[in-house]
Amino acid sequence: MTVLLLTVSGLCAQNGTSSPYSFFGIGESRLSGTVENQMMGGIGVYSDSIHVNLRNPAGYSQLGIKSLENGRLAVYSGAISRNQLRLTTTDGEESTAVTNLDYLALGFNIGDGFGVGFGISPYSSVGYNLLSESTNVDGANVINLYQGEGGLNRVYVSAAYEFFEDFSFGITANYNFGTLESTNTQTVEDVQFGTRDEKSSNVGGLDFNYGVQYNPQLTEKHRLFASVRINTQANLTAKNSRRIGSYLVSEGRTIESIDVNLDAEGLRNTELKIPTSVTLGAGYGEDKKWFLGAEYSTQNWDKFSNDFLGVDNITYQNASTFAFGGFFIPDYDAFNGYLKRITYRAGARFGKTGMVVNNNEINDLGITFGVGLPLGRSFANINLGFEVGKRGTTEANLTEENYFKINLGFSFNDIWFRKRKIN
Question: What CATH number is associated with residue 64?
């Protein structure tokens, strides 16, 4: 079977993605971090005391204000996004959009240099509707329609500790779960009946993310930021089912269907191994004023396979991403002039996704920018971010995606534990 990404239509807005490339692997990756991370090209090397850092678990050690003598700080964070896609093929264009809840997160300062957190976020999303046309040996037109939906979510628990000044270690335990569903319907010219092949995988499993950061003060005002993150191989298990049958083309009505005996094929329960990824980051900046940083990530996707949902026109190779970004605050303590207290963020990234479809590498380029809007004189803020990018190509009957993403996030801070005062 050879899948050609030819025409994209009727995309399902209720799914977390409308990307035709979510057809492959476990879907489109959604691990992009908080809005603050995303606005700086997706980097996670920077951490501070009033924002959760979903990219680097070591950042939880920075939560809380050390000068806060009356109690411990809690940080509440969440975001939604709107992603508009223009999908271009050699045959034309289609447009679609999806709106998603990106994450909900909660972080606590337990003690000086000790922070914990937990939350939920999407891991991957599947949402495609692809049409492939070909001619059989009898010269009849054959149409295959591929549809998919679902994806994986993750719940996580994180903890981090500052072992000595400016050096922290953190760990996150992730439980990933969800359902991947695909349907292939085939019709042949002048044939009354078509065939339908439905597959479903219930997926679950653990992985761990380790982070180390070192943020020494180099001068009176300036600080170095360095981090290493390792996301261990995710060993996911899939419980699979498959149903095939025939239907009346003129009415779409099922005529006959049967459950496939996957136990006899050894495909009832399969494994999905998401390869280990390694990220190195470095940056430099002035506290509460400006920051510039960069990261490089690599992941051995050439070791990935999906025995049950796999297709034959894709291979995997090592994936890599280079990203850089930063922020600028004109005057953090300004009493007059709201614009001076806004955080202005920007960045860019270029990634090789690791997918090679029809012998073409699928790359992803994005430019990001946005603002952090403080609420009053508190530590709370609203974050508004934008991303413009391109993924894929129109070569070899593939699809080029041009996307525009809007992110809206919040970060609120509160004292969750107050020290008792004795008069």
Answer: 2.40.160.60
